[in-house]
Amino acid sequence: MDKLNKTFYIETYGCQMNTVDSEIVTSILISAGFKLVDDIKEANILLLNTCAIREKAVERVINKMRQHKGFLKSGKLEIAGILGCIPEHTGDELKAKLDFIKLQVGPDKYRTLPQLIKNIYKDRKYHEELDFDIEENYEDVTPYRSEHTNAFISVMRGCNNFCTYCVVPYVRGREKSRTVDSILDEVKNTIAQGITEITLLGQNVNSYNFEGIRFPELLQKVAEIKGMERLKFATSHPKDLTEELIDVIVKNPNISNSFHLPFQAGSNSVLKRMNRGYTIEKYLAKIKMIREKIPNIAITTDIIVGFPGETEDDFQQTVKVLKDTKFDNAFMFIYSERKNTASAKNFKDDVSKEEKSRRQQFISKLQKKIGLVELKKDVGKITEVLIESISKKRDYQYKGRTEQNRIVVFDKIEGYNIGDYAKVKIKKAEGVTLFGEIVE
Ligand code: SAH
Ligand code: SF4
Ligand code: F3S
To answer: What is the pTM (predicted TM-score) of this model?
Structure first.
């Protein structure tokens, strides 16, 4: 294909899977001769890689695209396109609202981008590629890394779980696991580039299965790679989480002592309607097992409030789980009805907006207090921190993360650079941040 000598700018929304996908898209476009720019004013092509998980995420993208529209008239911008999960979910509605976009491409079709863009330059018409491809794992594409200390590496794509509220199975298609060899190769190459912290990604890593090799075995293989300093993974689904996986964490000191395990709701009747496949008792038993095996583990979770039919009593059961379990952090969402999902079809979105907000604010406040108590337990300890960046607020300080994935801010000192590991003594905890100083 002839080179076009065009520049592109990409913005990413949504989960870490989209972060990796944007790195894949960037790599594909650069290989085809396009040039990446980090200023939209310099771009001929604008791409937004989007998320459809909640209606708010969609509204955000629409607003952003409208803001950027001006560059089509006044700047160098020639083509505006939308990638990722919204095109698969409500691409037609999006096209109607943003009639100036020229391109929509779904997560399995990024290889077609160079040709599509070329076609648009030829015919000035709208183009889209939204098919799913069960074979597409982008195994041969080396993602273009934007971060220098940590890398996300996807081990699987898609999801088969069909939690009734969730669009992911509809916008990402069926679950598919990458080959073990391609994952190990990518990890080795990433370490060779100087990145020592790696996060293995999938919507449900516990259902990874490549020719009988399951996630615990894969994790063990990755942990053994030379130069692997810190290994993380996300996300685990409680129903598929096994003791074997926890044993792999115990056995390998380079696997981060942090665990993200969404419980979504404390009431069994809500969990059942969500099709989560576990009871809250089973969930809590798993938490107990994890804590017994790894006492200093930091556990985080996701919660949805205001799921259809959630009563005050149901909600109080969520509150109780929060109080009893003492998560390090929790991501708390207001239920957002998604087109095509089972809960949209079968249940009435009957918890009022006000009540949903009240519930969310209540647990946010509660979790803030609980999280801070947990965080304060680190005060006085000396922990190993990976230096990730310069602190946004104060340029004489670094920001890093502890083994438990907690954020730490501390003064820079000579001899320590971004990407290094430092021993940091924790002095205080505020909000969700630890403050400390390097001890040599
Ligand atoms: N695969 C991951 C999560 C993916 S989405 C998992 O199963 O854990 C991240 C979080 O968004 C979910 O855990 C859930 O809490 C929330 N979420 C998903 N769909 C939602 C919806 N329709 N409304 C509100 N929150 C939602
Ligand atoms: Fe969505 Fe459930 Fe799959 Fe997570 S496991 S992506 S919540 S369907
Ligand atoms: Fe959003 Fe798609 Fe991820 S819907 S949460 S970006 S898989």
So the answer is: 0.95
Q: With both helix axes pointing from N to C terminus, report the angle between 243-251 and 280-293 in degrees, rounded to the nearest 10.
A: 20
**C-alpha to C-alpha distance for 383 and 422, rounded to whole angstroms:** 8
Structural domain contains residue 145: no
The answer as to whether 325 is a domain residue is yes
Last-in-domain residue among 99, 129, 159: 129
430: left (phi over 0), alpha (psi -120 to 50) or beta: beta
- Look at ligand 3, atom 7, and give the residue with the nearest C-alpha: 168
Residues with a CB atom less than 6 Å from ligand 1? 53-54, 165-166, 168, 203-204, 235, 237, 262, 264, 302, 304, 333, 335-336, 338
Find residue 231's DSSP bridge partners: 198, 255
The residue whose C-alpha atom lies closest to atom 1 belonging to ligand 2 is: 166
Asked if the model's pLDDT at residue 182 lies above 90, the reply is: yes
**CB 233, CB 203: distance < 8 Å:** no
What DSSP character marks residue 148? S
CATH code of the domain containing 332: 3.80.30.20
Q: Please give the tally of structural domains in the chain.
A: 3
pLDDT in tens, 67-89: 999 999 888 999 999 999 999 99
pLDDT tens digits, one per residue of 98-119: 999 999 999 999 999 999 999 9
pLDDT of residue 2: 65
- CB-based pocket (< 6 A), ligand 2: 159, 161-163, 166, 168-169, 203-204, 237
Specify the pairing of strand 127-129 against strand 103-105: parallel
Task: List residues bridging with 302 in a β-sheet.
Answer: 331
Q: Which atom of ligand 2 sits closest to the CA of residue 276? A: 2
